[in-house]
Amino acid sequence: MVPPLVSWLFGASPRSLAPALYGLSRRKHRCVRDALRNGTWVQELRARVSPPLLESFVALRVLLELAQLSPGMRDKFTWRFSSDGVYSASSAYRLQFAGAVESPFVQLIWKPWATPRCRLFAWLLAQNRLMTADRLLARQWPNDYFCPLCMRNLETTAHLFVECPLSRRIWEKVATLAAAPTLNPATWDVHHMVVDWLGCLTRGRPNAEASRVRSWAMLVLWHIWLERNARTFRASTSTLESLIAKIADEAVAWDRMGGAKISSPRE
Ligand SMILES: [Zn+2]
After folding, report:
1. What is the pLDDT of residues 82-125, one digit of tens each?
2. Average pLDDT, stretch 145-153?
3. Which residue range is the domain that position 179 belongs to?
4. Domain boundary among 95, 117, 142
5. With 70 as the cut, is the pLDDT of residue 266 above it?
6. What secondary structure, in 3-state letters, does 93-162 show?
7. How many angstroms separate the alpha carbon of residue 161 from the centre of ligand 1?
8. In this structure, are 193 and 240 located in the same domain?
9. In the prediction, which pLDDT does 14 show?
């Protein structure tokens, strides 16, 4: 946690009060007592103070004359990003992530093993960036409107991958194939966001098993998308059985690639 900055000059610092003057200073790391002694800080300005800087120069000088230094106390530089005021590489490393928001994609997509194109695809999918019919429609671009897997509903990401009757049959078969019960639609809650649904597929699972299930999820999502594209662009349709066979073959290939064993469950 970053402690609040408490600066010595009435809660500010010369640098924040007069940045242009600070830029002219030849000694930027001199301690306060030395800088104030006999107006040393003025003598060490690199150039004469020009009229535009005169106002801030006078204001700073007035403040410095009013500042009271604690007798007998030596001033020192402190690193405000650690609790003890001492610089450490670990505190500097943590500082890089100050204010960062943890992304769910790290656990859901980037850590589990998958081929790079599957990961990239899943990342786009999770952010609703695939060009499904609803998004094409919103742009008034040409589209087929209906989901090509069932021809019943408007093709949205949620419908195509989660709600479509054919997709659900694929998930049901894969749940058995992968020995991963949470991939079975019968266990799913209703989610409005695909990324939430993706997160719930592995809720409560041990880490290694969760990672394996996420790999399977990316594999299945990818094959649903391939089948959707085959039907949309090539008028080519695969049966449920051949789709499951393709998924099973690729799962074996993923195992052989050595990135992760996704075939066997890790309870
Ligand atoms: Zn459908």
Report:
1. 888 888 999 999 888 888 887 888 888 998 999 999 999 999 99
2. 96
3. 105-257
4. 95
5. no
6. HHHCCCCCCCCCHHHHHHCCCCCHHHHHHHHHHHCCCCCCHHHHHHCCCCCCCECCCCCCCECCHHHHHH
7. 8
8. yes
9. 85
Model confidence, pTM: 0.67
| pLDDT recorded at residue 208 | 78
Is 264 a member of any domain? no
Task: Write down the mean pLDDT value for the chain.
Answer: 87
Q: Which of 95, 119, 149 is the last residue of a domain?
A: 95
Residue among 5, 4, 35, 37 at smallest CA distance from 22: 35
The owner of tokens 């009060």 is 17
Cα–Cα distance for residue pair 81/259, rounded to 1 Å: 39
Asked if 64 and 133 sit in the same domain, the reply is no
Alpha-carbon distance of 9 to 13, in angstroms, equals 5
Q: How many domains does the chain have?
A: 2
Distance 239 CA to ligand 1 centre (A): 15
Ligand 1 centre to CA of 228 (Å) is 10
Q: Is the per-residue pLDDT at 2 higher than 50?
A: no
- pLDDT of 154 strictly over 60: yes
Report how far residue 106's alpha carbon sits from residue 184's, in angstroms, rounded to the nearest whole number.
23
In terms of domains, do 130 and 245 share one? yes
Looking at residue 102, what is its pLDDT? Answer: 79
State how far the alpha carbon of 213 is from the alpha carbons of 127, 189, 205, 218, 258, in Å: 20, 17, 9, 9, 16
Pull the structure tokens for residue 178.
């992968």
Q: How far is the CA of 120 from the centre of ligand 1 (A)?
A: 23
Question: 48 and 88 share a domain?
Answer: yes
